[in-house]
Amino acid sequence: MISLSYYLVFSAALFCIGLYGVLARKNAVAVLMGIELMLNAVIVNVLAFWRFRTPELIAGQAFAVMVFAVAAAEVAVGLALFISIYRRRHTVAADEIDLLKW
Amino acid sequence: MGDPINAIANWLSGWLTALGLPASLVTVILMVLGVVVLASFVLIVDILLVWVERKVVARFQDRLGPNRLGPFGLIQPVADIIKLLIKEDITPVGADRIIYNIAPIMALAVVLLLWAVIPFAPTILGADVNVAVLYIVAVGALGTLGVIMAGWASNNKYALLGAFRTVAQMVSYEVPMVIALLVPVLLARSMGLQVIVNAQEPWYILVAPLAAIIFLITSIAELGRAPFDINEAESEIVAGFHIEYTGMKFGLFYAGELLHALTVSALFSTLFLGGWRGPFAEQVPILGVVYLFIKAFFIYWVIMWIKYSFPRLRIDQMLGFSWKFLTPLALALLIVTAILDKVIEGVSTPVYVISHLMANLIIAWGTVQLLRTYARFERKRVAEVRPVAVAPEADYKELIVQE
Amino acid sequence: MTAMQVVFLVTAVVTLGGAVMVVTARNLVHAALWLILTLFGVAVMFALLNAPFFTVVQVVIYIGAISILMIFAIMLTRRVMQDSGPQVNPGWWMSILLALLLFGGVDPLLALGKALVSPDGYVLPFELASVLLLAALIGAIVVAWEKKS
Asked: Do B148 and C68 touch (CB under 8 A)?
């Protein structure tokens, strides 16, 4: 049988891969992809806990729905920002957008 | 007795278990076999669709259509397929090979996925998912993916432009489609298609005709068929996102589009025309399959009728139509249907049908009035005198020939 | 090894493999397509967790909307049609170190996680999420609006 720990290990691995993507990539959209991987790992985690600990309560699923909504909103705003930045500076490489650096 | 598919499945599972195979393996084998049978059946119907399309378009245009190969031209699709198969397989220079090859496969596979949830009869159903309506929306979303992959992998500006436009159109029309899909879900209190068919004592096209019309229009736009075919219009953008595809890959796109049209017709029949319902469908399930396909082909004929009667819409007209007209209309319809359904809970069926029908007709009448006002406003705006560019007389005085 | 375990293993391998390809692909559009494969794998995970609603919602929202948004954003923000130059930050080895350390030390997080999913009302968060989505929608349009000068 598949126990809770399998899912937790899986979601931890996915989260760490996403974390590497966020920290190590230059292109801003690639960073956003890493963030999406992390958010997916979070949702898998929440649902695994819901299924194995309290399947009779609906709060676990509600929590996961909130994460979905927040992820969608954040991607939309993030991509709008990237497009706006690209129009001004003609780049989306994260180390070239350094206007606020001292 | 009248259900050959379940009878064969039961006999097969009994025979396999008697051979000594474990129960889980028998289930897996039966599932795989079911998938193969369903996919093959649908693809064979797809070949028939090529013939239907060419004959019907010919009749709409007052000519005969293919009638040389076989009786009534029935062998024509086979000839078409052979022609496509023996064509040279060209891959454009600089195209992304893997994505270029996957895109047509995705375009057809996505359509096959939809047939898994359509109920053919009370007992013949691919997968009885209780979120089937949402599954339909999900698969529609996957369709846009195939288009983007095709457009981008062709390494061609026109293909990319066509892909962008197609995706913009598909995404814009997904919104009113989902809202219109929510109306039968609301009336049947469930998202599962078998439950929706079972709940259609009066067919939902009588209870929610506006939702049916909105679903039909948005589905035709999702398909990319005329009058919404700006994406593959030869005269406009040179065949859009599948310019660079030849031979069988193009055949997959084309057959995928036709099959998608039939799938949409089958879905429409399931949601609004009662699916497999008809006389004696519960006792003899095979009759349910026949009824479903009769209704599906009727709606497919209506879709073709629309295709060959209307001129093409421009991309901005199309997007404006979706966002400014269909979405608010669908939202208003959903809200009114929800409130009405709660208010008249528990009344007899004729009252229920009449009241929902009246609500739909009132909304339709209100919309038509709004459209008339808007049209009058537009006419006045277009008819007013506009400044015309005229050169000052000093510039052309010397050019005037003195009589 | 039951059938479920085999399915779980295959799905996990496909998903994690796809995730690794996402963060290491040079060509951004390839990375987006690997992301779509990864999201599919996660959708299968949801199905294994007896949450079919989340499977379809994942496909509709993540693959049908967010991935397409990302692909559009990639295509609209390219300097040239090809990708050139290193795709990785200098100092990427520090990121791998951090990721591995985080993966190894997850046990204390289990207790926190259990405490987080205790029962409470969820209508208020739902309404707040809707307001958030509306604000994000309007904000995205305003931010990406091209000022005609």
From this structure: yes
Residue numbers in C near B171 (CB within 8 A): 65, 68
Arithmetic mean of pLDDT, C82-102: 60
What lies within 8 Å, CB to CB, of C130 at 6+ separation is A69
CATH number among 3.30.390.10, 3.40.190.150, 3.90.650.10, 1.10.287.3510, domain A4-89: 1.10.287.3510
**Residue B334 contacts by C-beta under 8 Å, 6 or more apart in sequence?**
B179, B182, B183, B186
Token pair 């797809």 in the structure block, residue: B46
Domains and CATH numbers, chain C: 1-82 (1.20.120.1200)
Report ipTM (2 d.p.).
Answer: 0.87
Q: What is the DSSP letter of B275?
A: T
Q: What is the largest CA-CA distance in chain B?
A: 111
List of chain C residues whose C-beta atoms are within 8 Å of the C-beta of residue B174: 64
- The model's confidence at residue C87, banded by pLDDT at 50, 70 and 90, is low
pLDDT over 60 at C108, yes or no: no
Question: ω before B209 within 30° of 0 (cis)?
Answer: no
Report the distance separating Cα B33 and Cα B25, nearest Å: 12
What pTM does this model have? 0.83
- Would you list which residues of chain B are within 8 Å, Cβ to Cβ, of chain C? 24, 28, 96, 99, 129-131, 134-135, 137-142, 144-145, 148-149, 152, 160, 164, 167, 171, 174
Alpha helices in B273-392 (DSSP H): 285-307, 315-320, 327-343, 349-383
- pLDDT, tens digit (0-9, with 9 covering 90-100), for B283-294: 777 888 888 999
Domain residue spans of chain A: 4-89
Q: How far is C1 from chain A (nearest CA, A)?
A: 8
